[in-house]
Design brief:
Number of helices of chain A: 11
Structural class of chain B: alpha/beta
Strand content of chain B: 5-15%
Radius of gyration of chain B: 15 Å
Largest sheet of chain A: 5 strands, antiparallel
Shape of chain B: globular
Number of strands of chain A: 12
Oligomer: heterodimer
Low-confidence stretches of chain B: 155-160
Number of strands of chain B: 5
Order of helices and strands of chain A: HHHEEEEEHHHEHHEEHEEHHEE
Distance between the termini of chain B: 30 Å
Strand content of chain A: 15-25%
């Protein structure tokens, strides 16, 4: 609620409504009115006082002149003690305007003549009781002026002898009236001034200050609410005008910036859409390529294996149908043919696995390594018992988020190698352990077999390479198993390596980084 | 030398495979178990279908069992299977798929189309022989005499 109670064109912001809102106009008009009133009152009062004093002084001057005139005129009579003439003179004097009462005193201070306008002359008896020789003028109330003047002989040779005194009572009501009128006029003028000034001030403040400020507030609100065409267009060559001008410039800048932002945004969206499309295209191309690769591998596998199947089948058939008519040498060589075919078939299978391992990861699942190793140990159970090799698992086996088949092949190949190359007829031991260190999962498969010569520790991981040492020469190996282990480790950005002392066994290490093999939180663990 | 009547009564098996060695092997395996059975070889899917349609109406020429390879140029074995099962004149002939493809979905696919059995190469001779015998026996209950005459040697000792 504003003090002046106007209805404004727009709504003030909420924050002001909570407190008592006293508008600028009311404040300034109030102050101005106070100032004007104070000034008028003080000025008027000063003027009045000055005038009043002047007029009263004037009256006293008049009184002095009158009393002198009277004194002069009664001097001769007083000298001669002519009381009749004195009375006549007194009565003459009373008829003068402004004279109310005349009292003439003789040299002893006794009243010798008296004249008065009023019917009751004794009213004035209390007045003028001053000593004879003293000249005094007194204003009694606003309408009565009393003068007491000694009459001194001014004839030559008289030495200023006191002849008597005159007492005059003058009527100063005219002055009073005049003064009263003046006071009334002054007050009226003052009121008029105030009454005229206030609306004028009101109007001025409105035009110069409040209206443009209100307009600015309104435009600011519109701008804040998203209307970027709002401009206040406040003219004027003062600070408010300048403020309005600068505000409009700012609003222009904001509108321009917003347009530029919108355009930049659109461009960005467009670019993002294009990039997304390109990405999707690349993705689908990749998927296609992968499928093609899969098809290729399958076709290759089939076509490579078909003749081998035929060879094997033919030999089987020969052995089945004509075994009885064949010599042992022939049968032995036929067996060799079959063994070679088997090796070739397994080699093709291994190579296919290897080439698949080099391809991208897909179908990752959460795999419990511990359980997987247990399953592998079971699979190898026959060979382990036959070769009298024991398997010891230690350390905390983690759960990895990887391709199940690939990781199984890694451990399968390592365990298979350890069993295959075990040169002890009994007491063979394979230790499988795992630990987590510095963001790496570290797996080891160590055995107490023949070991690997130092210069071949790298080469064993190459395709078709096997360790060349007397202990291993008798073992049939294809040289692909470790290459696959290395390939799988590399795919998960890990590493595979071996440490060994010839004659004391070998320890194969597979390190996989934790982030590359972390379990995705929403995936359930699949066994 | 068999008589014409014997020929007509013999069990007829067709082997469809583009690989000649494969066909020879199959023939050998079947002959080991039942040497009186007639094994015909066809090297091409389209040709097989054509031949089938030709003999469909002839009771002494139509096959009692077809052993079908999948990976063949032109018409694949599955196409031949589909066509045969869609043809009312041919749909009663049992077809055993015998393929080297390792696609895990293929078995389900083939059985869904209507294959009698599905084998992958290499197949163990004994079980292959058993399956063939079972398929033919199922086909010929009314002609059990024909089957018996065929003298399937079930308990023949095999070297595989």
């Amino acid at each position: 609620m504003t003090v002046t109670g106007h209805v404004y064109a727009h709504r003030w912001p909420r924050i002001h409504r909570r407190r008592l809102f006293i508008g600028l106009q009311s404040k300034s008009v109030l102050i101005l009115a106070l100032i004007v009133v104070a000034t008028t009152v003080i000025g008027g009062w000063l003027y009045f006082r000055t005038t009043s004093q002047f007029l009263r002084a004037n009256d006293r001057d008049d009184a002095q002149k009158l009393s002198y005139a009277l004194g002069t005129s009664v001097m001769a009579c007083l000298r001669g003690n002519d009381s009749e003439r004195l009375q006549g003179l007194a009565e003459d004097f009373v008829s003068r305007p402004g004279v109310d009462h005349v009292v003439l005193l003789d040299a002893d201070g006794q009243e010798c003549a008296r004249a008065s306008r009023h019917s009751d002359p004794t009213r004035w008896d209390g007045l003028a009781r001053s000593p004879l020789s003293v000249y005094s003028v007194q204003q009694v109330g606003s309408n009565v002026l009393t003068i007491a003047r000694p009459v001194v002989d001014e004839a030559d040779g008289s030495d200023g002898k006191l002849l008597g005194g005159v007492r005059l009572v003058l009527d100063t009501s005219a002055t009073s009236l005049a003064l009263a009128g003046l006071r009334g006029r002054i007050m009226l003028l003052g009121a008029l001034i105030v009454v005229c000034t206030v609306p004028l001030a009101y109007l001025l403040v409105w035009r110069l200050l409040v209206s443009p400020v209100r307009k600015l507030a309104g435009v600011t609100q519109r701008l804040a609410h998203g209307d970027f065409t709002a401009r206040c267009r406040i003219g004027g060559n003062d600070e408010i005008g300048h403020l309005g001008y600068v505000f409009d410039l700012m609003a222009d800048d904001i509108a321009t910036m917003r347009k530029e932002l919108i355009i930049a945004n659109e461009k960005l969206e467009h670019t993002v859409a294009k990039r997304t499309d390109a990405l999707q295209e690349a993705n689908s191309r990749l998927r296609e390529e992968m499928l093609e690769k899969e098809d290729f591998l399958r076709a290759v596998s089939h076509d490579l294996n078909a003749p081998l199947r035929n060879i094997d089948g033919m030999v089987s058939m020969i052995l089945m149908k004509w075994r009885d008519s064949l010599s042992d040498d022939v049968i032995a060589r036929l067996d060799r043919i079959q063994a070679n075919v088997k090796m070739e078939t397994e080699l093709i299978s291994d190579l296919l696995d290897l080439s698949r391992a080099w391809a991208e990861s897909r179908d990752c699942q959460a795999v419990d390594i511990g359980q997987m190793i247990d399953e592998l140990t079971e699979t190898f159970d026959y060979e382990l018992r036959q070769r009298q090799v024991e398997v010891v698992v230690s350390g905390e086996m983690p759960t990895l988020y990887v391709e199940r088949n690939r990781i199984r092949q890694v451990f399968q190949n390592l365990i298979d190698n350890a069993i295959k190359y075990m040169d002890k007829p009994s007491g063979g031991r394979i230790e499988i352990s795992a630990c987590q260190e510095d963001g790496w999962h570290r797996f080891t498969v160590s055995d107490n077999g023949p070991g690997i010569p130092g210069d071949q520790l790298q080469k064993v991981f190459y395709v078709f390479r096997r360790a060349e040492s007397p202990a291993t020469a008798s073992v049939k190996g294809r040289g692909v198993g470790l290459a696959l282990v290395k390939a799988v480790a590399a795919k998960y950005k890990g590493r595979a390596y071996v440490t060994s002392q010839l004659g004391q066994g070998a320890t194969f290490h597979v390190d996989l980084p934790v982030e590359a093999t972390s379990v995705a939180p929403e995936q359930p663990v699949v066994r | 030398m068999k008589s014409t009547r014997d020929d007509q009564q013999a069990v007829r098996i067709w082997v469809v495979d583009d690989d000649a060695d494969c066909r020879l092997l199959v023939r050998d395996v079947i002959a080991t178990a039942a040497d009186s059975w007639q094994v015909s070889e066809i090297g091409n899917g389209a040709q097989a279908l054509q031949e089938l349609r030709r003999v469909a109406s002839s009771p002494y020429r139509r096959p009692d069992l077809i052993l079908l390879d999948v990976n063949m140029p032109g018409m694949s074995g599955l196409d031949v299977l589909r066509a045969a099962k869609a043809d009312p004149a041919l749909m009663d002939i049992p077809i055993v798929i015998f393929t080297g493809m390792t696609d895990p979905n293929m078995r389900a696919q083939a059985m869904a189309i209507g294959a009698a059995e599905f084998f992958t190469k290499p197949a163990e001779a004994a079980s292959f022989q058993r399956t063939v015998a079972a398929a033919v026996r199922d086909r010929l209950p009314a002609h059990s005499s024909r089957f018996n005459r065929a003298a399937w040697r079930e308990d023949k000792e095999d070297s595989r």
